[in-house]
Amino acid sequence: MDPSVAIALGLLLCMSCLLLILPWRKGFGRGKLPPGPVPLPIVGNILQVDLKNIPQSLRKLEKQYGPVFTLQLGVERVVVLYGYKAVKEALIDHGDKFADRGPIPLLKLVTNAVGIIASNGETWKQMRRFSLMTLRNFGMGKRSIEERVQEVAKNLMEELKKTKGLPCDPTFILGCAPCNVICSIIFQKCFEYKDQKFLYLMKLLNENIKILSSPWMRVYNSFPSLVRYLPGSHHKAVKNMQSILEFILEEVKEHQRTLDPSNPRDFIDCFLMKMEQEKQQPQSEFTIEHLVRTVSDLFSAGTETTSTTLRYGLLLLLKHPEIEGKLHEEIDRVIGRDRSPCMEDRNKMPYTNAVIHEIQRYIDLIPNNVPHAVSEDVQFRQYLIPKGTTVIPALSSVLYDDEEFPHPDQFDPGHFLDESGNFKKSNYFMPFSAGKRMCVGESLARMELFLFFTSILQNFTLKSPIDPEDIDTTPIASVTGHLPRSYELCFLPS
Length: 494
Fold this sequence. Notes:
The protein is an alpha+beta fold. The chain is 52% helix and 7% strand. It contains 17 helices and 9 strands. The strands form 3 sheets. A 5-stranded mixed beta sheet has the order 1-2-7-4-3. The chain has a two-stranded antiparallel sheet with strand order 5-6. The chain is globular. The N terminus is likely disordered.
């Protein structure tokens, strides 16, 4: 190599390292950013974080640096909030300032940062407001949301009966139910379990949840401008997301052809009517692109989180048959066998309610939350967090707080019961996050979990092909969420 070229490359490398290190030294020296481990050039603190168990790494760092600390993950600087007080102070007490969405490179690549999950500013405000209003006031058509969920639950029971009590992997069946609920709300249709289009959609969703949960995605998110040009599973995830968007666009076009403004059928119809109302406004956020991306967010998030919680919950009940037995007793006493469960039953079933809450707490589905960002320079405690800084509110640290939940590593419904056996609420229950970015579909998800769990246990007794003591309930190592290990169970008719 020519000596002058070698010298130039060396200088370039040194300058790159200085550009990465100097901002950090400046931040630490002036005491503006929260403390944290000194980052290495280029990779930052990635080598100091176990990508297969990020919550455990954050727990260790919190003991060293306190409840608010800073990490450099590749090119991205993040502030971690650890513990209930820090998370509540940011997301609730200063909710407006912490309400921006942090960068999600893969979603930005596919969605162009529109929709609900990845958007910010006026786009996010209007899409979220409209979605909440439509989901809450879903008086369209002939049935309420609860009646739709009950109908899907009945179809789920019929599919489970077809297993004839033989061992089966419940992943696909339990994924179809919440998917059909969200499809009925968005598209006004429920798919047959053998429908080829439905099977294809479920395949795309299942593939993506595995890809997005892999350690490779942390590497991609840390170096998106570089890794996007390298081979890897992220290309498959992008292709799958684009296929889902194409399916949604076809549905939107069909809705445009058949829209009756006097009788809106579903979410898409309502959005199309809103588009018509604002067609004279050149800056309107209600466009076809925003509709497709918003529906995609509702469709994907509304399917995967609920189905994973159901699947993980049944695994925990297999591990703890004594808890399942108490659930059967309460269901028989309150609901019986002659009618379907309804939401009015929940207030009369404190133990069932506590078990479902404990399932959500224990599985800690999205331990590090979806990344937030500050919308302006924020004075937070004794620190100054610059505008645009990514913030990770560690939900694990709240759901596993040992003062609020004694023995948090144990699956214990007693965490949500008082001494008299009544259901006990907790401010630390944050599986849906908190504040301005709280999950749009929280009320729907709560309804689904109650009606699906009670319907299953009303009709079936769960049996594991292996001894309960041998069941492993620890999650699969994952970057974005906690997934249960593959398992089989038998649904024995009650």
